[in-house]
Amino acid sequence: MTRENILNLVLALALLAVPFIAQAAGQPFTITLATRIAILALAATGLNIALGLGGLVSFGHAAFFGVGGYVAGILSSHAFSGDPMLFGLSGSKQMLVVWLVAMMTAGVLGLAIGAISLRTSGVYFIMITLAFAQMVYYFAISWPAYGGEDGLSIVVRNQFPGVNTMRPMNFFLICYGVLLVGILLSALIRSSRFGAALQAVRQNDVRVASIGISPMPIRLTAFVLSAMLTAVAGALYADLNRFVSPSMLSWHMSGELIVLIILGGTGRLMGPVAGAALYVIFEYLLGGLTERWQFFLGLILLATVLFARGGLIGLVAGKVRHG
Amino acid sequence: MADPVLSIQNLHKSFGALKATDGVSIDLHPGEIHALIGPNGAGKSTLIHQICGTVKPDSGTITLAGREIGRLPVAERARLGLGRTFQISSLAGEFSALRNVMLAVQAGQGSSFAFFKPVMRDRSLTDVAMDRLQRVGLAARAHVPASELSHGEKRQLEIAIALALDVKAFLLDEPMAGMGPEGSKVLTGFLDSLRQEAPIMLVEHDMDAVFALADRISVLVYGRVIATGTVNEIRNDPAVRQAYLGDHA
Fold first, then answer.
1. What's the pTM?
2. A208, B101, B120, B156, B177 from B149: Cα distances, Å
3. Is B78 within 8 Å of A200 when comparing Cβ atoms?
């Protein structure tokens, strides 16, 4: 077992253990923190497919995160009121349905945004993805049907077959399970033929084209998959807070996801988990001490970029080795 | 003579007033090594870019195995069998030598849209890739990241990647560049045997290698082919001697 695998296992088990310890110690709020970590880690795992494996620095993933959230909010509000939605479809309180719709919606949106954005690269790609996400953000603000600027409440958390989702522990376990599935999928993708082509496109797209693999379809597929996974996280996040607002779509959110990945280790399988854990813990501990906790987070980010380019995972496990 | 595998007819490309390619016609026949030589700035690189698709010609045709490829994207030309190596080694640096070749094997097999099967356990990739590394004498370094290979080893890896594709014509851009005398000798011997597999268009500055390998040579000066012929014809052509070879011949 490599050092990275041991670290990955430790991280996964620690995240699972924390809520149980918290429950035994009578600290239910800590369960919510762990749930937040799992959801943010899932969102960043999605982004990591595009950013880490494909080198596509999307500064617009909040669009997919927020769309996932809005799908959860809109479906549940219609299910609650009984009003039909667009095309006479009815809402749903079922998480499984919500996730599926969230993935499909984000997939279509990702296809459209990706097809245009991926014609550019570098700084232009960063800016154009940001621009698209801001378009979605302002659309949500100016759309009064679903709360506009005020956002949309989810009265009762969506349901999962056979589980009382209102209990924090149950909801944590759902999020944790989805996170594991997301990580497993991204591990499979990474070691597959598609993953090989994607990682090669990041390193040298001219070479990849010259052996007969067109880079564009590879990048676009990665972007869409990445958007879909991030959207599921968005749906869970809305269910966690039982509230969705345009702030989930704002560029702060996109930046936060990138920060998580950098803190944990870009392109590393469990980088998003490590990053999300660090981020939420900083936010909680430093946030308890000072309102200006983000200043200190900035210092930590600076130190990471200067002295530990591989993030936490890179610091412990060293550089990535490819067979 | 059999039909040419790669045929360039009356190719033109201008950058403003500069005629980088000025009515170039070159044929590459089965089993031959056709060397392309010329002084710096003669338009060799521009010509290569047009053949492999990174620069679009203004007019003229490029045909590979009877099919016009002059307007196709880079990847499509590669899929049709144009195997290219780069003047400056261009590899996926983080990947091991083996994985660089495996990617080419995968490209040759047709699909990169498989999401679940791990490549390292796919014998149809690893075995073929290992075989190609063996052929260029790089098997011992299979698991070293490409960026950590020596200059000569990178050149060998370039060739191994081209070998992994189902190539109809090789386009080798200065394969000898930066190789020591010993390495050049080994590579010359290797390219000599490679022509059986597919004909080679060889752009090279190393005249010893060119004279040892080429069946025919075309001399490019100011975007025009001023002479095409066998090694002896070219050596004795007064225009070529004046324009390029000087004392070397």
1. 0.92
2. 19, 14, 21, 10, 15
3. no
